[in-house]
Design brief:
The chain is of the alpha/beta class. It folds into two domains: about 80 residues, Dihydrofolate Reductase, subunit A (3-Layer(aba) Sandwich); about 40 residues, no CATH class. The chain has five helices and eleven strands. Strand 10 and strand 11 form a beta hairpin. The structure holds NADP nicotinamide-adenine-dinucleotide phosphate.
Length: about 170
């Protein structure tokens, strides 16, 4: 099953100048606990900027000659979201698959109407001067419904929201 995990500020901003402009240890811990041992799908920018290195990492990039490349065990480069899903399903079943960013990768995941979206709202209001990246909030509001909203047990400044797709056409994606 494919899921999204993301953190955003109250305006939907997820990144600035290729970085994440906040640091909440409680979120980092939650992110690690959620994704560890599972396959992650990540856009090339986020992969290069954030050092999101897992044992089962699938990097989205269109800079491929022959579609899909497995460069070393546990790291794959793929040219489409569908290929990312296929690789994860073939190599890493029956684990959960987490789409971990950035903005383009999140947009691709929501276009595919993946099942669940796990969003943490951070209280930092970021000045978007520079190169901001946003979560595709419009798609989220249109195609997903909020099923839970809870404060973080270790840092009540953080709010965790879980969304589920309203109209999934494919049961496992
Ligand atoms: N707050 C959070 O939860 C969070 C998490 C992760 C990242 N971020 C932030 O997000 C920002 C980066 O986001 P971004 O939107 O610039 O980049 P991104 O989504 O990380 O990467 C974009 C690149 O990934 C490839 N790509 C994306 N979707 C694709 C698709 N459907 N098919 C094939 N390739 C695809 C393309 O690579 P090529 O150019 O190689 O073709 C594209 O240029 C950074 O600021 C980062 O810190 C935030």
């Amino acid at each position: 099953m494919v899921n999204v995990i993301a953190a955003m500020d109250p305006s939907g901003l997820i990144g600035l100048d290729r970085a994440i402009p906040w640091d909440y240890p409680a979120y980092s811990e939650r992110f690690k606990a959620t994704t560890v041992g599972n396959a992650i799908i990540v856009g090339r920018h986020a992969y290069e900027a954030l050092g999101l290195r897992g044992e089962r990492t699938i990097v989205l990039t269109r800079r491929l000659d022959n579609g899909c490349r497995l460069t070393r065990q546990g790291l794959s480069y793929v040219g489409t979201f569908q290929d990312a899903y296929s690789i994860a399903s073939i190599h890493y079943p029956p684990q959960r698959i987490w789409v971990v960013g950035g903005g383009h990768a999140f947009a691709a995941a929501l276009r595919r109407r993946i099942n669940r979206v796990d969003i943490t709202i951070v209280p930092t209001v970021v000045d978007p001067a520079g190169r901001p990246t946003h979560f595709p909030v419009g798609d989220l509001e249109q195609h997903y419904r909020l099923i839970s909203e809870d404060p973080d047990p270790h840092d009540p400044r953080l709010t965790h929201r879980l969304y589920q797709c309203r109209n999934r056409s494919q049961p496992s994606r």
